[in-house]
Design brief:
- The chain has about 325 residues and is of the alpha/beta class.
- The protein has one domain: Ribokinase (UDP-N-acetylmuramoyl-L-alanine:D-glutamate ligase, 3-Layer(aba) Sandwich).
- It contains 11 helices and 13 strands.
- It has helices at about 35-45, 60-70, 120, 130-135, 140-155, 170-185, 190-200, 205-215, 250-265, 270-285, 295-305, and strands at about 5-10, 15-20, 25-30, 50-55, 70-80, 85-95, 95-100, 125-130, 155-160, 185-190, 220, 230, 235-240.
- Strands 5-4-1-8-9-10-11-12-13 form a 9-stranded mixed β-sheet, sandwiched between helices. Strands 3-2-6-7 form a 4-stranded mixed β-sheet.
- Helix 1 (about 35-45) packs across helix 9 (about 250-265), helix 7 (about 190-200) packs across helix 8 (about 205-215) and helix 9 packs antiparallel against helix 10 (about 270-285).
- The chain is globular, with a radius of gyration of 18 Å.
């Protein structure tokens, strides 16, 4: 079997994104944190694969066409005739963007360890999942941890993004399972908002320490427009954000993960990968939706070399 750079596990969601605050018009797109991440990685040159379940419906078929058009291997995608592909809506206002979900009972939430394509998992160099991948159901959480075990046994590296959604699970359970995932991973991604809730610590540096104590060797603490704080356990570097014409930050954090893993797969050192991913994430805010503005390599290179612009899909 051909070796894959990055394999991700999670829930795809059809997106309807409000085009302007108060407007009744929505732009149909694609979302789901792990799907966004794997597309971002594919656009930036990584060999990618996705593991999920989709409904036997028009939305599920749209996703398959999307992944295949982006070069994402879909051998690990199963069709569930008894469940639907999840949907969410994004609205915009004074407090930023807000999400509303139609995901209960989704096909992806029925993912279980028996569904894992272990041959694909073992053939990946990096295996990735998120807190959302685990929060959608107890069987999905079991599947993520089983995939991490199989990946590590095969010599792969594990990446995990906390992506905390307290609408999906209580904080105590989130802390327990995110902690279990952190202890199994090589690269831990989280936002400052997530970190404060999970650790109880306010200071960014204290949250780096919390993640390291949980067992994560390398930590990327995403700070939104302020950039990212990166630690490998001995060195800490704060990477400033980029000034861009931001309109929608829906997929920026997912883009950061995809870009960082793509560069790690290409052989970049951790801090170089973080600088690249920081630029890619900034560009992901310059268009509407989670997928459409995900940048390609020339876009990122232009921003890194002082020639800002918008991402080109």
């Amino acid at each position: 079997m051909t070796r894959t750079d990055i394999l991700s596990i999670g829930e795809p969601m059809i997106e309807f994104n409000q085009t302007a605050p108060g407007e009744p018009r929505y732009l149909q797109g694609f979302g789901g944190d792990t799907s966004n991440m794997i597309i971002a990685a594919a656009r930036l040159g990584a060999r990618t694969a996705y593991v999920t379940r989709i409904g036997d419906d028009a939305f599920g078929r749209m996703f398959v066409r999307l992944w295949q058009s982006e070069g994402v291997d879909t051998q690990g995608v199963r069709v569930d005739a008894l469940a639907h592909t999840a949907v969410y809506f994004v609205t915009h206002g004074d407090r930023g963007h807000e999400f509303s979900y139609l995901r209960a009972g989704s096909a992806a939430s029925r993912l279980a360890p028996a569904d894992l394509p272990l041959d694909l998992v073992r053939a990946a160099r990096f295996v990735h999942a998120s807190g959302i991948s685990m929060a959608i159901s107890s069987t999905a959480a079991d599947a993520v941890l089983a995939a991490f075990d199989a990946a590590r046994a095969a010599g792969a590296q594990v990446a995990f993004d906390s992506n905390l959604r307290l609408k999906l699970w209580p904080l105590a359970r989130a802390r327990a399972l995110v902690g279990a995932a952190a202890s199994a991973c090589d690269f831990f991604f989280h936002s400052l908002d997530d970190a404060v809730l999970l650790s109880g610590e306010e200071a960014p540096e204290a949250n780096l320490d919390w993640a390291h104590r949980a067992g994560a060797p390398v930590v990327f603490l995403k700070l939104g427009a302020q950039g990212v704080l990166v630690s490998d356990g001995t060195r800490v570097e704060r990477i400033a954000g980029h000034a861009v014409q931001a309109v929608d930050a829906t997929g920026a954090g997912d883009c950061f993960c995809g870009a960082a893993l793509a560069r790690l797969a290409a052989g970049d050192p951790v801090f170089d990968a973080a600088r690249y991913a920081n630029a890619a994430a900034a560009l992901a805010t310059t268009g509407f939706g989670a997928v459409a503005p995900l940048p390609r390599a020339p876009d990122v290179e232009r921003l890194l070399h002082g020639r800002p612009g918008r991402a080109t899909s």
